[in-house]
Each structure stands twice: as C-alpha cells, then as structure tokens.
Amino acid sequence: MNGLAEQMQAMLVAGPVPAAEVMALALYHPRDGYYRRPEGRWGFQGADYYTALDLGPLLGEAVACRLARAWERLGRPDPFVVLEPGAGRGWLGRDLLQAAPAVDPDFGRAIRYLHRDDNPAAAAAAREALGPHLDAGRARLVAQDEPLAPFRGAILSNELFDALPAQPWRWDGAAWQYEALTAAGPAWLPGAPCAATTWFQAQSEDGLESGDGAPWCEALPGLVQDLAGSLEAGLFLAIDYGETAARLLDKGADLRRYRGHQVDGKWWEDLGESDLTADVDFTRLAALLEAAGLAGTALLTLGRWVRAHAPLARWEEGWQELAPSVRMQRMENLLQLTLPTRMGDRFRVLEAWKGLPLI
Ligand SMILES: C[S@@+](CC[C@H](N)C(=O)[O-])C[C@H]1O[C@@H](n2cnc3c(N)ncnc32)[C@H](O)[C@@H]1O
At residue 358, does pLDDT exceed 60? Predict the structure, then answer.
C-alpha cells in the first residue's frame, strides 16, 4: 500500500471523507498523487486522457490570432507577456510561439511566454517542447511560488480549472447533500448550509428540482486573486469544461474519472492512478474575476470562439501547399475543435479584460 492509500484509509477510519478531499489527495498527494508522478501520463501516448493540444496545432494558432489582437488593443507592448498556469507539457505555448510570427512579425518578437505548472512531470516535458524558444529567450519556465511583477499581456489556461479539487453537491428535493467516500463506498450525506449552497440557491433560474446539483471549487477565489494580481493590463482567457452555474445545476453534479482513455463516474477508484475532472462554474469564475478588477466577460463555446477568431479562409488557402496527409490532419483538427459533438460544444472559452474594455 502506498502513502496515498494509507492516508486515505486512516481518514476513512475517522469518518466519511468529502469527495473534494478525496480528489485533492488523488491528484495532489505529495508523492503518489496523479499530478505528482515523475512521469506524465497525458496525450495519446500516455495512459489516460488527451486534450485539444493532442489534436494538432490549430488551437495554438487560433490563440496566437486572438492574442495578437489583444496586443494591438493594448498598444503593441514589448514585451507582451503570456502566463500559462497549469501549462502541462507546454504544447499550447509551443504552438502559440510557433504561430505568432506568421500572424504578425512584431507580435512574434514581442511575445514572452511563461510556463507555470506545479506538476513535476510538466517541467521536463515542457523543456523538450519549448526547447528552441527557451534558448531564444522567448519562453521561460517559472516556479509555482515565483513572485511575478505585474505585466501587460495575457493569462491563458487550457484545462487548468477542471483539475482543481471540487465538491459535488445536490438538492434532494428538501435539503442539500454532499458526496463523500465512506468505508462502505461513495454516499450522499446531509450537508449544512454553507457558501456553496447559498450560491447554488441564488443561481437556480427556475427553482431547484430533486437531483439538481453542481461541483463547488473551494480553491477558485484564491487562484483567481493570485492570477489577477499578476496582470497589470490585458486579457484573461480560460479554455475548459466550463458551463454557466444554472446549466451545471440542471445537469447534476458529478466528478469524472479518466483511465486508459475511458471515462466514467467512479471517482473513488484507482486513487492516484487515474485523472479526476470536474465541470467548472464559469458564472462563478466570471464573478470572481470581476471582483478582482477584470471586466467585460465573454463566454463562448470553443467552436464559436475558434470561428470568431481564426482566419478560416486564410488557413484553408495555406493548407493547399501542405502534403495531402498533413492537410487532412489540419481538417480533422479543425473539425475536432469546432464540431458540437467533439470539443466544439464540450469546451467553453471565458474571456475577461483588465485595464481595457472588451474588444
Ligand atoms: C488537466 S492538466 C492540463 C495540462 C495542459 N494545460 C494541457 O492542456 O495539456 C492540469 C494541470 O494543471 C496543474 N495544476 C493544478 N493546479 C495548479 C495551479 N494552482 N497552478 C499551476 N498548475 C496547476 C496540474 O498539475 C496539471 O499538470
């Protein structure tokens, strides 16, 4: 039995453990947590899950177009700093830096990409992906606890917020319950009124029905404060399994487990051996950003966001010069990002501005 399992067993002897605490241990136990392993298990080659970055370079190219407009809007600052918390392997930074000079050579010269991730496997993978950009001084790996002087630029994340421990709550028709792990297995237990239940109550548009519920992320305000504090002026852009609070409540709370590229709801099994994910309450994220001085929040599905910001006609024209197999990959990449049944609807993009109105 490893340290994580021992700790979990000791906690269960003392009583039920809220699902958010189980998720925190499963992902972030200092030695045996899923995101504390020395080797990363992401991507098609890894064991458990892939992200939009595994599908090709188009997300990075679309982000480059979006950030170039933000750079213009900010008055073309040099440097234009892009901080990516939860950056994992650094593939989004790599694709962004690769695409930026073609979008605008001056933008390509101004951009400075900061990779930040508290996962020990991330640094090694990112060094490999970002190698030439690190050497050229256009990218840098920043330590999790490194204080950053406020910068002009952007804060960018892909699937960061869904990796924060989250507590599922549900309304049983008369009272609130929270999900927990007991010695006998998972269970819904009566929960006392708290900040989460007050928020859910206020967000339900048509009144609550039995089974309504959503995950509550305790760490969200602290992380938003930290990130917002480092941005002097610019764009905040989060790509995630995000939903409005009302739609999340309708959907019902769940945590998802990714193991061997299969997904299910068995969050209490294989702790430390599988990835756990929760939907992200974008209504709450937007409210926290606003409280931290960011305004003009916009929320789009990933598909609509890509169509709004990527030069699709120019892309297609440029792809004519590529080898047929590469051209097909680009097409597949675009369909994956934009089709509702693929990532187009499952992911949402939340934008907010600091220091300037939304474009
Ligand atoms: C689901 S992975 C996504 C990785 C990458 N963005 C991608 O799309 O491939 C989430 C990553 O966020 C990291 N993480 C979680 N909380 C974090 C925080 N507060 N600051 C920085 N990284 C964090 C995890 O260790 C993990 O590597």
Answer: no
Q: Nearest residue CA, atom 4 of ligand 1?
A: 88
The per-residue pLDDT of the chain, averaged, comes to 94
Q: 161 CB under 6 A from ligand 1?
A: no
Q: Which of 358, 12, 5, 2 is nearest to 185 (CA)?
A: 12
User: pTM value?
Assistant: 0.95
Relative orientation angle of helices 58-73 and 91-103, to the nearest 10 degrees:
60
Query: Cα-atom radius of gyration of the chain, to the nearest Å?
Result: 21
Beta bridge partners of 351: 237, 298
CA–CA gap between residue 272 and residue 256 (Å, rounded): 14
CA-CA distance, 108 to 138, in Å (whole number)? 9
- The model's confidence at residue 47, banded by pLDDT at 50, 70 and 90, is low
- 352: enclosing H helix or E strand: strand 348-354
User: What 3-state DSSP class applies to 158?
Assistant: strand
The answer to whether 331 and 324 have CB atoms below 8 angstroms apart is no
pLDDT at 53: 85
Query: Phi and psi of 47, rounded to 5°?
Result: -90, -30
Domains along the chain with CATH numbers: 52-165+217-353 (3.40.50.12710)
Give tens-digit pLDDT for 100-146: 999 999 999 999 999 999 998 899 899 999 999 999 999 999 999 99
Say if residues 276 and 257 touch (Cβ distance below 8 Å). yes
In the chain, what percentage of residues exceed pLDDT 70? Answer: 97
| Distance between Cα 279 and ligand 1 center (Å) | 15
- Answer whether 158 contacts ligand 1 (Cβ < 6 A): yes
- Give the pLDDT of residue 43: 65
Asked if residue 69 lies in contact with residue 63, where contact means CB atoms within 8 angstroms, the answer is no
The response to whether residue 250 sits with its C-beta less than 6 Å from ligand 1 reads: no
